[in-house]
């Protein structure tokens, strides 16, 4: 246990979208393992006891990414671990017909292009020292799209999966491991708000909306949502020396919902 608690000592980790939900759980997990953790989000979480180094940035804007990387380089040096967790969707429910160009663009920027931008900025540092780990937090919807309410989001996550694999093929020979993690339903404030929105839109209870969403994924054999800490534990392993031969994979962590092998 002592070894696990110190296995990331001396490492600089950057977690985007790291102030709440899955991102915060990941940041906490890496901190427990000894890493020096930087979290990025658009807004400060308002937590006076925040244990991570917080930097405000909107990674859907190119100039914000450039400014962020410059600040990190000046204050912390080079990044050893990059966890691209930012993502989400505010697109309306109702399927393909209700999605505007703006909905598609917003979801693609947040769930794909923001990761591409930060990777492009950080990768040269990793290549120079021939080491580093990048983890993209994707979604089970990348393989099992929920078209009624998450069409554009699912397409963006599917593209993120393909991009992550492509990146691993190119940069693993240069010492950088790249992996993706695709959670299913996770009990976060964002998920609770999303289920409430579905409930309001469809005129059903939150419990019914939850069951409908589980059913749209083919059912969840585990019978519950994941906890953010359960996703973080997988990420903590993937960025550690214990996962030194793991790259180019997409780990689905969904309580058994995915029907394929």
| Overall structural domain count | 2
Shape: globular
Instruction: Give the full name of the CATH homologous superfamily of the largest domain.
Output: NAD(P)-binding Rossmann-like Domain
Strand content: 5-15%
User: CATH class of the largest domain, anyone?
Assistant: Alpha Beta
Task: State the end-to-end CA separation.
Answer: 32 Å
Taking all Cα atoms into account, the compactness measure Rg is 18 Å
Keywords: Oxidoreductase
GO molecular function: oxidoreductase activity, acting on the CH-OH group of donors, NAD or NADP as acceptor
Organism: Leeuwenhoekiella marinoflava
Pfam families: adh_short_C2
Please explain how this structure is put together:
The protein has 261 residues and is α/β, with parallel strands linked by helices. The chain has 2 domains: 2-184 and 229-253, 3-Layer(aba) Sandwich (Rossmann fold); 188-225. It is 46% helix and 14% strand. It has 8 helices and 7 strands, in the order H-E-H-E-E-H-E-H-E-H-E-H-H-H-E. The chain has helices at 2-5, 21-32, 62-76, 101-129, 147-171, 189-202, 206-216, 228-238, and strands spanning 12-16, 36-41, 53-56, 81-84, 132-137, 176-183, 250-253. Helix 4 links the parallel strand 4 (81-84) and strand 5 (132-137). It is globular. It starts with a helix and ends in an 8-residue tail after the last strand. InterPro entries: NAD(P)-bd_dom_sf (IPR036291), Sc_DH/Rdtase_CS (IPR020904), SDR_fam (IPR002347). It holds the Pfam family adh_short_C2. This is NAD(P)-dependent dehydrogenase (Short-subunit alcohol dehydrogenase family). GO terms for molecular function: oxidoreductase activity, acting on the CH-OH group of donors, NAD or NADP as acceptor.
């Amino acid at each position: 246990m002592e070894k696990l608690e110190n296995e990331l000592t001396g490492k600089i980790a950057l977690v985007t979208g790291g102030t709440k939900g899955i991102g915060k759980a990941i940041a906490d997990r890496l901190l427990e393992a000894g890493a020096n953790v930087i979290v990025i989000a658009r807004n400060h979480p308002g937590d006076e006891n925040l244990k991570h180094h917080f930097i405000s940035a909107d990674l859907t804007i190119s100039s914000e990414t450039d400014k962020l990387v410059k600040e990190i380089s000046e204050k912390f040096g080079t990044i050893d671990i990059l966890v691209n967790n930012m993502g989400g969707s505010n697109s309306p429910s109702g399927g393909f017909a209700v999605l505007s160009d703006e909905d598609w663009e917003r979801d693609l920027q947040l769930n794909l292009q923001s990761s591409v931008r930060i990777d492009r900025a950080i990768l040269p540092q990793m290549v120079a020292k021939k080491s580093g780990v990048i983890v993209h937090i994707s979604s089970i919807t990348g393989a099992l799209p929920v078209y009624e309410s998450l069409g554009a989001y699912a397409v963006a996550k599917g593209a993120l999966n393909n991009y992550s694999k492509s990146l691993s093929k190119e940069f693993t020979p240069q010492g950088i491991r790249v992996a993706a993690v695709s959670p299913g339903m996770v009990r976060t404030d964002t998920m609770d708000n999303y289920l409430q929105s579905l409930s309001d839109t469809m005129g059903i209870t939150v419990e019914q909306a939850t069951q409908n969403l589980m059913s749209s994924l083919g059912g969840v054999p585990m019978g519950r949502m994941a906890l953010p800490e359960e996703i973080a534990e997988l990420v903590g392993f993937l960025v550690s020396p214990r996962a030194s031969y793991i790259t180019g994979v997409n780990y689905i962590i969904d309580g058994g919902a995915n029907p394929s092998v």
